[in-house]
Prior knowledge:
Helix content: 25-40%
CATH topology of the largest domain: Virus Head Decoration Protein, Chain: A
Structural class: alpha+beta
Largest sheet: 5 strands, mixed, barrel
Radius of gyration: 25 Å
Shape: elongated
CATH class of the largest domain: Mainly Beta
Distance between the termini: 38 Å
Number of domains: 2
Number of strands: 11
Amino acid sequence: MLKKYILPVASIILSLIVIVFCAFSARADTVSQSYTASVNIPAGSLVALQQGSGSQIVPADSNNIENLLGVTIASQASLVNLNSNNGNTAVVTSGNALVLVSNINGDINKGDSLTASPIAGVAMKATAPGKIIGTATNSFSNAQATSRQNIVNKKGESSEVALGQVSATILIGNFQNQPTLTNNGVIAAVQAVATSTTGKSISTARALLALLVLLIAVAISILILYTAVASSIRSIGRNPLSRHSILQSLIQVIIAVVIIMLSGFSIVYLIIGR
């Protein structure tokens, strides 16, 4: 009984693996571009394009967040450095980097979105809709502060905040408090779960592909299991003496279904985890 399922199941799994690796064989390594800056900007600083300047950058804060560009790094820290001769400051626009952060909006946990803060060049946890620099891949709390700074809020009140660094996946995007319940609410929910699980920002395309692979794996598993159980019941009804061998075949089918589901989850992890 099991033999008639092995070839089609193996073909489907192999096809899924080929699709995934063709789609994501080009891994999102750290990519930087070089820009000019009129002042020295420390590595890990959030930067924005200076309006009307072309390639001139300035430290990013709450006032110029709409021009958010990336995070500065030492040029040798990038695997790919585009236009390296056209500027003196390397800026990560995609990939992984250490980011200067503060606890202005509270402690930062893995998976939290990061946005520009009132302190120039320093990020904070995003808590309101707006532009983000990416997603934290580790945590930062008050106890991990490497320095502290006093800031004054809009009411004129002074408070001390903790400063430090977190590693982050850099991907410019927009932050929303929760998925909007529209026709793409399922995709938004998948993105939210994937982001909180991996600590990375997950694009809509990746979320769609992950959801598709998972649905295919579930559909195949249900189909095989239903067919095998129905066939087993009919066979036992026709020949009660074959019950033992039929149950053995049914156990083999269940094992195959488990393998299919594990393969599906593995492919999903490859999609959202790279």
